[in-house]
Design a protein that fits this description.
347 residues, alpha/beta, seven-stranded parallel β-sheet, 13 strands, globular, binds nicotinamide-adenine-dinucleotide, binds 2'deoxy-thymidine-5'-diphospho-alpha-D-glucose
Amino acid sequence: MRDDRTISMKLLITGGAGFIGSNFIRYILKTYPEDRVINFDKLTYAGNLENLKDIEKDERYRFIKGDVCDFAALKQAAVGVDAIVHFAAESHVDRSIHSSREFLETNILGTQNVIDVVREQGERGIRFIHIGTDEVYGDIESPKKSKYGDPVIPSSPYSASKAAADLLVMAAVRTFNLPAMITHCTNNYGPYQFPEKIVPLFISNAIENKPLPLYDGGTQIRDWLYVEDHCRAVDLVLRKGKAGEVYDIAAENDPEVTNRMLTETILNILGKDKSLIQEVSGLRPGHDQRYAVDASKIRTELGWQPQISLAEGLKQTIKWYQDNQAWWRRVKTGEYQAYYNNHYNKS
Ligand code: NAD
Ligand code: DAU
């Protein structure tokens, strides 16, 4: 199996039109002039080819509209690739509470299809990175940090579906010697994040002087990592990670950051008043209080560390949303507007 940075790779990225996938594709094309990328994406409400407008004409890049639940299409897209980085998923916890089926289909059955495509390659050995989440460990009491091997206790249909996908990947590693690795990252933020997630929702609402719906007192803790730091971590796992291993990835912000602190920082940077905060409850039953993972393995074994502090990353992200208002104003219409009205009017 190839793990040499100097050897060029042909990568199949699933979900490359979403937030992290599009940032990852841009990072790969910028960092490795010899690499080629195929982006395989269904273009759900969260997939947006505008996220890749600046590279769509790059001859090293190709887009295929496809569903990971369609085995034949996925297999065809994987012909000749050296690695698959599997980002495609239904990713929003609140939506999984409203309706779970698409989460089970894409996140579980779709991942099984990726496993089967990799399996069919046999000895050729396509390297496979499954992008998991820290949410599989569930609610973590302070001061504990979770890591691979700890109990998997997901709280939402989203995180349960991601946990199921992890288990299928690890079973395939054991049973079929699949050359797969899993990553579990904490919350990402940065450019091109769909404005249903707290950071882009609150930045864009604040710019529009709309209320910021802060759930359940805002005491919950998330460990925010700038998306490009996550991309660097996934790239290291892709090129240097050991088959069969699981890598937990986290900023390990110290001190830890509550949602209220995050919200007030966003308002502060934008010069907006705290009165925009609207206390709401009941919108996320089963709401996890705290996520925290121990990232010492990827730090020591692969030499990864985050390069962008939360203060700096938030400034850059807010500037991006200020400079790219046409992007999020378009995204916030249509399907999303209907979701927003339906979800937030329940508070
Ligand atoms: P996202 O919702 O922004 O993007 C998901 C992408 O997957 C979209 O482009 C969508 O069109 C595509 N997709 C959905 N269903 C598909 C299907 N059936 N076939 C093909 N494509 C499909 O998500 P994101 O925030 O970029 O997350 C990407 C991955 O990273 C997910 O697996 C998520 O679980 C994981 N993750 C996210 C975070 C975070 O903070 N956002 C943190 C850790 C892990
Ligand atoms: O931890 C990694 C996970 O991070 C990823 O696996 C998920 O794909 C990603 O969506 C994210 O999940 P969260 O549920 O933590 O992110 P979200 O932005 O939805 O919520 C972050 C916190 O903010 C959470 O405590 C709920 C709260 N929140 C969220 C929204 C959308 C609010 O207070 N108000 C809101 O309107």
